[in-house]
Amino acid sequence: MAFDGITTAAVVRELSDSLTGGGISRIVQTEKDELQLLIKNNKKQYILFMSANASLPLIYLSDEKKEAPITAPNFCMLLRKHIQGGQITAVTQPGLERVVIFDITHRDELGDLREKKLILELMGKYSNIIFTDEDNTIIDSIKRVPASMSSVREVLPGRKWFIPAQNKADPLSIQNEDSFLLKLSGGASPDIVRALYGTFTGLSPAAAEEFVFESGIDPRKTFADLAPSEKSRLASVFLGHMERIRSGSFTPNIVLKDGVPVEFGVFPYRMYGDEEAISGERYAAGPAGYSFSYPDSVSHMLLSYYGAKDRVTRMRQKSADLRHLASTALERTNKKFAIQQKQLASTAKKDKYRIYGEMLNAYGYEAKEGAKSLACQNYYTGEPLTIPLDPTMTAQQNAQKYFARYGKLKRTEEALTGQIAETEADREQLESILTSIDLAESEADLHQIRRELSDYGFAQKKAAVKKGAKRESKAAPYEYLSSDGFTMYVGRNNYQNEELDFKIANGGDWWFHVKGATGSHVIVRTMGKEVPDRTFEEAGALAAWYSSERKSPKVEVDYTQRRNLKKKNGGKPGFVIYHTNYSLMAVPDISKLKRVR
User: Fold this and answer.
1) Which of 289, 329, 436, 590 is the most buried (most CB within 10 A)?
2) Cα angle vertex 422, ends 565, 495, to 5°?
3) pTM confidence score
């Protein structure tokens, strides 16, 4: 189900129950189209996340605080001025619109009590967060919309806020079967599913399809094709769901197909084989590969279904410049490597010139003046040999010319061998950096990756941090707890891999890394204890998951004790060598592992 009016109603019920009466203690604009409010109510602290992202608008109660930018945007500063310290008096939804309205009271500069509204519109590319006074006059918005962008409605300071007309009926206003059928008969849709979501506001195609399924109606039929009994059943299902919405009777659930989330909703999906969720049940199996999980709140449902997707989308946007830098540097390095390899191949004939010189020193007296070649026997192999000669030079001079060529090619080979080793190390480092970018989950991760790119000359160094400015936060390795109680660390980039290997791990700890590919180093802290097989398997799964081979069904992982690792002098960060190791096949699945940090 898309984030439709029904899902919005469930979110509003949850937010109303949790936040009404709460005080706003902190406001952060974490992105250009995203807000995070810290709200204290009933001796609890809530983190309200709302996003007007055009591709993924969201609102839910979050479990984690996001990092605030160094300089707060103007819209954030405006909200802090007016409503930080204010109290949420109501959380409402007009009809079944995808709109959430927060009524907030606060005291102005004179101490008088004032009312404001913070409005989130969850309308795809038209999504917005709008701040108004009590009369719906817009004070400002996170996205300003002038007349040049929209002829339907301007969203600018001083304009009145209103919901654009959609020529659809409010489904919550339908009280009986006759009014439902009257509204539905007024449309002209090719099938009953589209007739439903085209007639009533707030219904997604998935919700309409579920209503039709529960009614036992062929979804290809039009409204005119329905028998009276079918119309009656559809009306009964529709009215029953509307009553559940009014009463706040919601069942957050996620539909999985072969373990992958494919849909979510706030009512059970009978069209996927789901029956009414048993109270307290967190997971149930269904037919044809479908299964169902039941989060304990709407926010947890949205966080599970959309949270990871939102983070990935944001990180892809934020890491685009780093990815471009690293990809460009890798492409340039690959070209350089190909040229060096070609040059090295040309030095393979150096020994031929050395032998020519030595043979001329031995048999040069046989060469006639002005001869263009000398036929002799190669005393190394006993085979006949013909040596080309410059007729204008003596045999001794020809020998010196060949020795000079040999010397030049030998020096070139020696230089290229070192250069190729350096270029290959750069290639491995850049490939590893690209994997780190793919696995990055926070801006702190990207800061460390950017620093590595600049430290090793792949990007320009950033200007020095000014005195008093907020410094970039340092990302720490991930920390997991194995099923047997062992702490497992995962490096998030090359610098963290280096820190894990040579600062955090002890000699008896176990080290894991995917074989023949780039990825994180995983350390299992043994604390002097014997590590059971299950922990080895879980550590292998971590190494496989946090690697470039994440999408493979099975991955070969090398593991050895930390004492067997060595670092080359002048080697790149996070690159080690080892000669004693074991291997295991790991499935890159860490869904059952608990991340501590």
Assistant:
1) 436
2) 45
3) 0.64
